[in-house]
Amino acid sequence: MRPFKNAPSLIIIRHIVPISVSKNLNHIVKQRIYIIGAGAISHQHATARKALPRETELYVADPNPQAREKFLESFPDAILFETSDAMLAHAPATEHDIVVVATPPRFHCPETLKALQSGRNVVCEKPFAMNLEEARQMVETAKAAGLHVSCCSNRFLGWSANTKMRELIEDGAIGEPYLVDFQHRSPCSRTGVEYQNGSWWFLDNSMNGGGPLFDWGPYDLAVLLDIFQPVQVTVADAVVRHIDVRHGIPDDVVFDIETHTAATVRFVMEDGKAVTIRYERGCCLHGEAYEIEGVYGTGGYLAWDWIPFGDQLHVRLKKTMGPDEADETAYPAVDYPEGDGWAEAPLREFDRYLRGDASARVIVNEKALQSFQLLGSIYEVSETGQPVTLQLTSNGK
């Protein structure tokens, strides 16, 4: 199975007139947010408009009339289009326009290219593309046009627990870190079945590009890259497997994504020191459920709940004092970032970046390409059995 390399051809979408237009589009006084796709994730991007400093106008395109109708029920101010061609052509681009590509991954590249060619900056959902060739094309097109393209894998950057982990490691709280466990193993938590039931495209490799590695890997790797800031990454070995448990899946639904991935990844930092990461993601596998996030150091151990989807996040520092003694510090539980941070982050942070805020937590341009290249390297190593080493530029931008 080669989920990372199965790339479809570009999709050409016909141009039609808008479904409804209720504003004078020749006199723009508000920031315009364009969303391609009206599914579940697009609702979160539409809500994120509240986090922007300017008033906004919302435009949404989706060929599915039911999806458009449902979207309009939640966002009655939205201006709806059947196609992205019609939406992007309705008026000339302005410097504050932002396009959000919120389609299944199969359409990320063609829709992003279309938005960039219209003269607008783009936020693209994760995974960034279906393969490395598409990802390069997206970044190079943005660069050639003097525009920017960002990936939504930044959703959990800046969360208090992850920031605290980085601070403690940088301050030497556990001495020199050398080993990381980042493992999430669930016997049955398939997106499209147990989560977002009925969204069968998540199970189809030709539509989604992959399984839990494509769904969650962008977030996992983004957090780890942010904490350790490596300049070199090596995927030493990896295993990617499809476990064919069709319980809850109709017979006529394609189910060919990988469901269990494990890899050994080595980060080398700017000072030459290195950490080895035991990484694992499984949504359908035989065996017990297991979850751990922890960093071993020469002077202690840090464990953290990086994304519990609860009310609070936790960080714990443990130190062994002797054969029968141990010291553990449980840092006060820290709240989520301002607002509903994970839903707002991609649009909010990209807008900050475009306004020149150097502290914006984004995965943009070259950084988006490098993050995606690391994701794809896990698939490649699983297939070839040969290690892959990547050199990262400073901050990846």
Q: How would you describe this protein?
A:
With 397 residues, the protein is α/β, with parallel strands linked by helices. It has eleven helices and 15 strands. Strands 14-13-12-11-7-10-9-8-15 form a nine-stranded mixed beta sheet. Strands 3-2-1-4-5-6 form a six-stranded parallel beta sheet, sandwiched between helices. Helix 4 (108-117) packs parallel to helix 5 (132-145), helix 6 (160-170) packs parallel to helix 9 (217-228) and helix 9 (217-228) packs across helix 11.
Question: How confident is the prediction overall: mean pLDDT?
Answer: 88
Return residue spans where pLDDT drops below 50 for at least 5 consecutive residues: 1-28
Order of helices and strands: EHEHEHEHEHEHEHHHEEEEEEEHHE
What is the topology, as strand order, of the major beta sheet? 14-13-12-11-7-10-9-8-15
The helical percent reads: 25-40%
How does the helix and strand content classify structurally? Answer: alpha/beta
Per-chain topology:
Elements lengths: L30 E6 L3 H8 L8 E6 L3 H10 L4 E3 L2 H6 L8 E4 L6 H10 L3 E4 L7 H14 L3 E3 L8 H11 L6 E9 L19 H4 L3 H4 L1 H12 L3 E10 L18 E9 L5 E9 L7 E8 L2 E5 L10 E8 L2 E6 L10 H14 L11 H19 L3 E4 L6
